[in-house]
Structure formats: structure tokens, C-alpha cells
Amino acid sequence: AAGTVPRRRASASDMGRGLPLLLLPLALLAAPAPAEGGTAAAEDVQIEVLHLPEACSPKSKKGDLLNAHYDGFLASDGSKFYCSRTQNEGHPKWFVLGVGQVIKGLDIAMMNMCPGEKRKVTIPPSLAYGQQGYAQGKIPPNATLIFEIELYAVNKGPRSVEAFNQIDKDGDKKLSELEISQYLKEEFARDGKKRHPSAHDEILADIFKKNDHDRDGFISAKEYNVYQHDEL
Question: One Pfam family this chain carries (predicted)?
Fold first, then answer.
């Protein structure tokens, strides 16, 4: 499996595909959120910068759409439990930062990161899979995880106020599938990165699956801002 999310899981069957772009490759990286009130949550993510480009812009922030490769290891014995380069024909993975599409520790570890930067991060169990572990991903209970991450792209994510207003072409304060589809096409064309052919449809499907709560075919300003990135 690849690509679930803390509290917000998506499966291949949900989208009718083998590897949903934002989620399936992250199945091993997404886990149920730790139990509320746990004291272990005070533990920190340790970040070691392995490579920092001279030109470090833009830096990643909550709500950005990131493209990255990563390897995951168990800190206990150094064994590798995940390698993104062996998934989805080796394409880097896309996900929105800071909204729970990956485990909490990775959302923290990849903040303020720039394209071309490489990091080695150590994530405590409280910010990963906690006491329950993740058997399907061969991650035991109370496992500290190490990830080596290489970030390729930082794009404006589809969740900022500015992005909402850009997407909402008719100004009706709700986003149609056509409006979001056009926005994604424009963003992809702007950065010129090579992407898996299914990227557009998978991101679009994922956005509606997670945010069109009343299933009316539109994403309202309230639905769009469910993660409280900014005030709309």
C-alpha cells in the first residue's frame, strides 16, 4: 500500500487507479493521528540538512504542493521500509504540506524547505505511527523513523486565499470542477516540470474527495478552508 493519511485515508479503489498521486505513495507515510492528550507529542522532529542550494526560493509553507523523493528507515536497526523511487514508475511524489496527507512528523520536517534541498529527519513515534505501529508497512509499535528527503518542487498549493480567488473565476465563492481543473493545468504549465500523465486527474479527484463534504459538485469557501490555512 502507499499513500494514506492521518485521519484522512484514500485508497486506490477510491479513485479507480492503482496509485493515487497524492496519497498512495504516502500510505506508509500516513497514519492515524496520535491519541488526543498524549504526552509523547512534546517530542521533536530532528532535522539535518544534507544539501542546501545557493538559491533557496521559494521555501515551503503550509498549503504548498510539494514534489519529492524519500526513503524511510527504522531507527532501531536501519532497515529500509519504504523507497519512493520504486513506486509509481519512480516518479517523485506530490502532496500538500501541512494538511495531514503525510504523518505529522513529515509535515513538520518539510516546512521551510527549498527546491533542491536534501534533509535527513528523525521522527519520534508520537509524530509517526505511535503505539499501534503500521503492520502493513512493516512498521512496529513505538518506532522512531528516519527519512532521507530530496525536494524537487514547491508550488503554490490549491488552498491559500490567493489561490481560491484565482480559481474562482466567476466570483461566486465556490469552486467548480472545471475551475479547479483549469487552475491545476495553469500551475503545472507554469513550473514546466515533467509529471506522470495521471497527475492532473488524481489531484483533482483527491481535492473533491476531501473537500466537497456536501457532495454538491462544488467546493465552498468554507469547505476549501477546512484546514484553516488562512481566513477566506
Answer: EF-hand_7
Q: Which three cell numbers stand for residue 146?
A: 528516519
118 CB-near residues (< 8 Å, 6+ apart): 49, 50, 51, 148, 149, 150, 151
Output the pTM of the full model: 0.59
Q: Residue 127 belongs to what domain range?
A: 46-156
Question: What secondary structure letter does DSSP report for 142?
Answer: T
- Is the pLDDT confidence value at 130 over 90? yes
Which strand (E) or helix (H) includes residue 180?
helix 177-191
Please report, for the domain that includes residue 201, its CATH number: 1.10.238.10
Q: 135-155: per-residue pLDDT in tens?
A: 888 999 999 999 999 999 998
Task: Describe the chain by its helix, strand, coil percentages, rounded to 5.
Answer: 30, 20, 50
